[in-house]
Amino acid sequence: MQPSMKEMIKKKKESRSLYSRIEKIMPTLFLLIASLSILVTIGIIVTLLTETILFFGDVSFIEFITGTEWYPFFKNDPSFGIWPLISGTFLIAFIAMAVAIPIGLSAAIYLSEYASEKSKKIIQPILEVLAGIPTIVYGLFALTFVTPLLQSFIGGLPIFNALSPGIVVGIMIIPQITSLSQDAMSAVPQAMRDGAFALGATKLEVAIKVVVPAAFSGIISSLVLAMSRAIGETMIVATAAGSTPNMSFNPTESIQTMTSYIVQVSMGDATYGSTIYYSIYAVGMTLFIFTFGMNILADYVSRRYREVY
């Protein structure tokens, strides 16, 4: 039996009433979900600050930020100078960027300016696979393949060194640089390329002198974000760089980064509530400040040099 016109109008009104209630509820729901991420961030900062303050109740803040020796496990005279861990972290990041920048930017230029659609369909999925490999697998690759390969060229290279994990961290961040830089280059209007071609520029000149400068803010942002990830990388350096807090910029020596020290202590090398235990929060806070600063720098560069077409 077909419903009457009155019943159809009633159902239509009920349906509209339901949609109207959903429309009113959804903004509040979205606000709560967005607020959840802010609360989580605040919770992380509060946790780090609370435990870090307990650490500085036992260790001088001046010693922490100026000391050049990090020997927390010494029973008689432990040292808590953070600089050996900072130098190890930035040595790894510097080697990684030296590997990733030329390869990542070259791949981005090729994919943006030269690659056919068929080539993109082959190369881009391969880069996505590279980005999806677990970092512990990268660490094992550094330890069992890259280090023995480097030892055949560099005599006396120890099994744990900064060079091998630095190179592999660079390989790991190549997809990030390539993807973000390619997006920035692809956003450059075709009219700018056509104008350069009309003036007699070659394809390479258009890519280097027109597209790259026009996409500069996006490229710099991708590099800063990639370096931030290299600074925060954990498993590769914990596996292949060793655990020697050595304030040295020699890539052939074993070093320790901030993240690998946190892993070392978290694996049970310190009792709960000890100064060594609280030291991982002070190191974590230092790492947080560096990565937070890098993200702010990336945001500033993006806004400062952004081109509006």
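The record above closes out task 2.4. Task 2.5 opens with a second protein, given below.
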Amino acid sequence: MVNFRTHFKDKANVAYMVAGYPDLKMTKSFIEGLDRTNIDILELGIAYSDPIADGKIISEAALKALEKGATIHKVFELLSEVKTSKILVFLVYYNVIFSYGLQSFVKKAKEVGIKGLIVPDLPFEENEELFRLCEEANLALIPLISVTTPKPRIKEILSRGSGFVYAVASVGITGGKRAEQAKLKTLVKDIREESSLPVFLGFGIKTKKDVQKIKQICDGAIVGTSIVQLFKEYKIREIFKKIKEIFE
């Protein structure tokens, strides 16, 4: 199992993008340029028609990606053609995995260099089989813990988690308002009492100032919505420049 701590210095910079948005060519160019960026870990969002966790900007990007033909098969094909020393993980809804076949999906993800899966709509009570398959393949099944998750539930969820902990910093979908710093600090403390995995905070983290503030209380910051927005407005060189500024 990959130790995510060995892939970042002090605090991790975690970026999110929708695979295939605005098109697969841009996704390929972005991944090929990752080694020249200050991104430590890239979450590749797999476009899905009925996302439960995505806000307007990410949902619209996913819809565009689907319209352009960004299926999981195309994403696997793309990943088999690119190389990067940075860590890639999937954020993928369970229906995509289920339709592909659990065992086949895990095997293929491993083959193309994916190090972990984040599955936002898969509850703990139903993740045992996928967790076992991921363990056998040395692939992390990354748990999500929300600011509203009770402490006993945190312990339960973390009993089947690996890689890092995705701490959800807001109530609701991506791009929403982040919870108060004191509340997030308590959330990170509660997680650390139950797990030695690095804790990254995501949802509601958009700017350089947000990233700096979040890094004071956890092991890394996840930026999604504002990065996806960059893909709508800029060309690849400008996108890299602006992401570098966010994570400085």
